[in-house]
Protein 1
Amino acid sequence: MKRPRLSFWLAGLWALLLGACRSAKEPPLAEASAFPEPVARILVRRCAGCHNGSAFLSSEAEHDHGGPSPAEVSWIGTRVNLTRWDSLLYGYRGEVGMVVPGSPDWSHLLWQVNRFPHLGPTAAPIMPPPVPDSSNLLTAEDIEVLRTWIAQGAPNKEGQVPWADRLTTPHRKAFVCAAGSDLIAVLDLDTYHIMRYIPVGVSPGAIESPHYIQISPDKRYLYVTLIGGAAIEKYRTDTYEKVGRLAVAPDPAHIELSPDGRYAVITHFTTTSPVKLTLIDAENLRILDQLNDPTGQVILRPHGLWVTPDFRYAYVTANTGNYITRVELSPDRQRFIDFTQIPLAPGLLPQPDTRWGPYQIIGEPTGQYYFVSCDAANEVRVFRQADDSLIAVIPTATAPKLMTYANNLLFVLCLKASAPALQGDKLGAIAVIDVQNLRLLTHIYNTGHLPRGIGIDPIRQQLWVSFENLAGSDPPHHYVEGLAGSPGKVYVLALPTFTLQAVREIALAGYGLALIP
């Protein structure tokens, strides 16, 4: 009678030992991976067997799985690694944002595993591979788990969100308008990761089109013009929290702040609205004055803007005229008080004339010159700050638009420059001008398609350029079903060699950008 009991006891002990062994060999997936357990069950169990950071991938596999661009392969050496939370979020440095915290619809990982159009965009090839059949694919419930996790910030098992430490500082960030998606992409200046998207606008179903970004002098805030929303919005640059919104006249395009950050002038890129300029209290987001010009006698279709360091004069381009306008502000910065029209060439009578197309204006910091890009005449005109006299005309490639200045060089985005032998169907070039000698040095071709925003990182000596990429002439990483257009692009070039450092896809229609070193 005792043997059966002993046998039963041994069997029970054996079962316990087996269970203990299994527990030792198979801890909760979250423990080793740092993903939340429901996410780990999908990514680690279903995906990490292949996507484990292996460096042995063919070039085709790199492309299909979001690998680095050719320019990055030689110096990054990272691959998609789904074995751990930190390796997925911090390790991968490819062209696309695999997981963008808070933005499931712009997280490439979700595109790649999703086969349900009602749950978001889908991309080919579908993952995991349907081998031996489609039973291997993720279910709708799996996709919902991943969507919810990303929407909540893609936290680890402890609840920490990626780049949490960056929410305490504004520095080392690039802010790039995605005009077709009502988003601002936030990228890390050092790793080029897309850390976040800031949603802008208040009109569901209507694109308000973020156009231009200006950073406050203390780096604490960004101001963005919503050219399709007749408003500007203000955000914190550390936490990305929305501070407020100010409704202004239609088509706000460019914004420039006073040196103390208390005031700003806004241009309105319009021929139909009577308001051509707005002066605001930038701290409290209220309108102080407007320049009403219903017939365009003062400024025809104003776009570009430069304010003098004392904030007494605003220089404004008249895009459908043959002149720029200098607008005087009152000493108390409360109103516009006078204006002077400056012809683009001596002897011209300021009037409507579409042959010139003055678009942007920028002053160089020594106080010697200011530069006007003319997108119809394909040139940059140089004026002396002291007396507004024209001193040079520098030809450029087609449609010069935005400009930036650094180290005695002026970089000019030429929107429609064509060079089929160098860049196929892509349009765009970067003109490089020697400011000391006032001459064109070169054009940089074969980057992205339709350049729209430009900025300099002085710490790493890199040039950042955003591209609209309408019609997808700069092919997106994958063809994606469910998007309203082709993703925008951001290119990073080393200075002074202009070698490509990184390419990043962002949401639709890359536009204005601003960097905080």
Protein 2
Amino acid sequence: MKNFFKITGLSILALGLAACGGTKEPDKGTEKETASEPTIQVVASFYPMYDFTRNVVGNEGTVELLMPAGTDSHDYEPSAKDMAKIQEADVFVYNNENMEMWIPAIQSTLKDGDVTVVKATEGMVLLPGNEDHDHDHDHEHEEGHSHELDPHVWLAPSLAIKQVASIRDQLSAAYPEKKAAFEKNAAAYLEKLQSLDDSYRSAFENAKQKHFVTQHAAFGYLALEYGLTQVPIAGLSPNEEPSAARIAELKHFVEDTGIKTIYFEENAKDSIAKTLASEAGVELAVLNPLEGLTQEQMDNGEDYISIMEQNREALMLTTAQANEKEVETETEKEKTVYNGYFDDADVQDRSLSDWEGQWQSVYPYLKDGTLDQVFDYKAKQNKSMTAKEYKAYYTTGYQTDVAEITITGDTMAFTFDDGTTKKANYQYAGKKILDYQAGNRGVRYLFESKDNDAAFKYIQFSDHSIAPTDSHHFHLYFGNESQEKLLTEMDHWPTFYPTDLSGLEIAQEMLAH
């Protein structure tokens, strides 16, 4: 479409010059150009984004794949030629900054080129990328409270459906005159993806063996969505080298659990997977992360759906085989301070300045559905409650009419849902260690106000920290009866995050922790 407007502009200029010369005959080439519906030029970052987008765009434009066939998307950096290609496009489609980590560096290029940017994971909450994420940490080095997140959303057909719908909606918003075509194209493709999703659910709903060992941690979403358990040799990047201890641990795991197949990738370093399979005496099979198809695969007409069908069949080499050693495993909670494991001697006094700032209640985001993705993920990770039950549990916990809190010095200002604000001074009144039935512990930091017009005389903070540090979110217990009464409250814990975070950012923070 950019070329269309460039040609049209030049043609109009030519018409003006011709008119000045007394020529009345119209430019036939211009008439032909303006009479046709302009198409859009789209560049998609890597293969799944390309395949999703071309099935939405159809004949309404051209879709070009940015990364060359067979390229490892984790190692890719755009060249000057690639940058020019992006800037010349009308639309650029990508997955997520945690995959295409070079996206933030090209924002000025996208802006200068007036490129419509489509993020396929827009509005989606991602899984934490590091399963060993330590929650007892200093966030100061994490700009915007960012975390390493797992970007491999497309490998679960159920989530690929959401990505295609997001691409459709963003393109329709940018080109409303093409909305009907985009919706028609997407509907046909979504029907195929729904069939793929159904086939995955049917294949794995009664899996005889749920654990599968992969070359790198690309299949977390697939595992979570279909009730399986991924056991990765390495981390999110296929080039990440596992330690010798990790290899030894996995060898014992494979032997102890009776796993007969280890999955490797054709487009990445596979020597470690092959070595592990050889040492453990098991078979190898391909599980394709679809980060880049080879030219031969593309020439043979392979696409997202056909490769995912192959992945399904490959996984069934494991899931369809009865295994007497297969056991249901539960992830043991890491015994960190954040999770409530500490010694009394480590607990220190804290001042109100640890919670200084402007804070918002998360309760409105629970009510409007923003946090529903969090509850859905929790239900899939821990089947002790359904998503609906999790939401009911957190509804009781988060419920409050305190909309915002501003803490400055020794002063706390409570703003309520009706718009009224009450301000009072608070003094530190000590700390209390609580022992929970689950075996972990918590610390409440107590404050009291002697102001007659204070909204709450007694306040207790809990934020998973046990020593002076800037808080990044907290649970707040408040009342006017006594500190002792508040210490018995276990079901109701209004929770507050910084006011500069959006609801989606808060949901992402919750899942990361």
Protein 3
Amino acid sequence: MNTIAIRKPIPLIASLILAFVFGSSIIGTPVHANTAETSDPSEIFDQNLSADERQALLARLSDEQVRDIVWDLIGDSQSESTSSDPMVMELTTMTNQFREGLAERFRQVPAIARVPGIVATAMTPPGESAGTLWLVMAYIVVILLVGWLVQSLFKKATKRIPEALSAASHHTFPVRLARRFGLLIYDLFPPAVFAVSAYIVFLLAYRGHEPNRLLMMGLIAAILVAWLLNQAVNFVFSPKRPDCRLTPLDDRDSRIVSSRISWIFVASSALFFFQAYLSAVTSPFEVAIVVSSVNLVGGLTLASIIIVVLWLVRRPVSNLLLSGNPPGLIRKTFASLWPAIGTGLIVLLIFVGMFAAIALKQDGVLLSVLKTLLLLFLAPLLLGAVGPLIREWGITDSGSGSIPRRGEAARDGLVQTSRLIIIIAGILLLGRMWNVDLVAVTRSQLGEQITQSAGQILVTVILAYLVWTVAKRWIASREETPAQSEDAEGHPETGGDPGGQGLSRIATILPLLRGFLMVTIVTVTAMVILSSLGVNIGPLIAAASVLGLAIGFGAQSLVADIISGIFFLVDDAFRKGEYIDVGGNTGTVEQISVRSMQLRHHNGPLHTIPYSQINTLTNFSRDWVIMKFELRIPFEEDVEKVRKLVKKVGQRLLEDPEHGPEFLEPLKSQGVNRMDDSAFVVRCKFSTAPGKQFALRRVVYAKIQTAFADAGIKFAPKRVIVEAVTPELAAAGAAAQQITTETPPTSGDDRG
């Protein structure tokens, strides 16, 4: 509205100027003759002029002066419209303040050289010589040693307490967590004993010099805070107490992680309390320069230490991220990239801290940075601990408290909800740490736009996460695995037999549905986020449509594969885990994708078959299967007796508690199927579920063999009759040969 208000008078003024110039040319007034008498053209904008005086002044202006005035008005309006944007002005002001303030801070860095002199002066009591400084330092060392000795005696006197708390092992996570909390409470006493005893000894030796009291209090507080934070690290990783360790890391990795993280806490505590001591003992004229320089150099040094520690513990932390449930693609990617992500967060945190201290003039930025670092350490631990705590709650070591699959899905949903609450609470706590007033931020133009965009993005991401979590849990609760099917592990004999029943129809389609939902949710979320950032997503949607159309025309075989696969799934022609035959390629359906399926042959080869190449499909794993086999019976045996004996074997198998339920139709004999030169061939058959026929056939063979042996019936072997050459046969053959040689051969026609 301001821009419109500024630009609106321009056409009016220009019209008046042109009207007066045109009128003067008609009247014949010599314009150029009076140019010399015209004063400064800018006088036309004098608000004290009357309408007649302004008209007379316009009449004396030349065409060139009029054009200059018009162009000046246009330039002024553009510059005013550009600079009148509050958001741009606010951002420009903060950027300039940050740039100038940062340059000023770096110019003040050499003031750190005065820090040793300031500390030495503060430690030396008034009227004492310079040698007193060494005596004060000796007092401090002795006091700290006395505190350390007292806490060591306390630990030795109470060593049975931690031994009793950490004696039991192999408990579930909630039990180990409760025992570890008890150990943590005990571990808090040695630092407290150290601090109290050191402070008492200091009071006994104190001679009334206030800076030394502040120094001693700062040292004790820094050691106490670093020690307590180190105990919190040991609470999680327990490098010296593997029986109560909450993480799956081994002893070596636990020692590496806990010791490296302790570096960060020691450096943070030393920096915070040292700058507080400097603020108290430095003169008011140079306290701002000295303390700001120490904070700048100390903060950059601390950031460097943290980045080095991140890369030193990358392998143990990656192993920790990949532990537990089988990791997915996101977890594997994060486990490999987390040091780079952590480095980026530390750099961003340092930049935000410097910007808040320099451009926004915030106080207590160093404390906010240290609190944020502590939050970044505690938040992943809470996110990781809530999973096993909820999943293993109520489950005993003996496994009697195991929960069904639906209960596991409900607990997984509770885990995701708890983690979302922790993340939201962490964000709110982060705002409190940095003294961010959301109401005040939203009042400014820049803050209003940033808050609106950030709010839309945050709500979109949360909704997408909730939708994906609900969909994934619903799919997981209805998915089946081959281990859950009836014939997977019912009998050891059935391990490698093909033809077993596959998964249900919905279990076959659910993996495809999960992939489709993931792509849809990610795409819609990305589009909404881009729209919230001010990106016009219309051209993106149009380009995606054109690209899809081009793919449809250029990859017709791909489209044919997808369409054919849809109709095969709709017709329920095959399912995952079923044994099928596709054009001579047989195998178990192992994987189903959008355009093809993979068959695993029972000998090991894997066939990948596009759906559009399937002309005929034979499914061996549906409903039921009939197993037929043949028995060879000698000619002298009674066939009717064999039939009755096979029928009795079938009845006994039906009554068998292990194999009886697996028969759909009992074993029976179909009689003599054919005869060969040495036996009757009797055919038998039974009906069962797909995949069980081979195991049952082995059982049937064993039962029939036992029954035939008890009845005295033998199986007929295959015989080959070979006639040997006897002396009589040899003499007859020789006589026949002689007759053949003595008879003269006949030639020609014998019709006389």
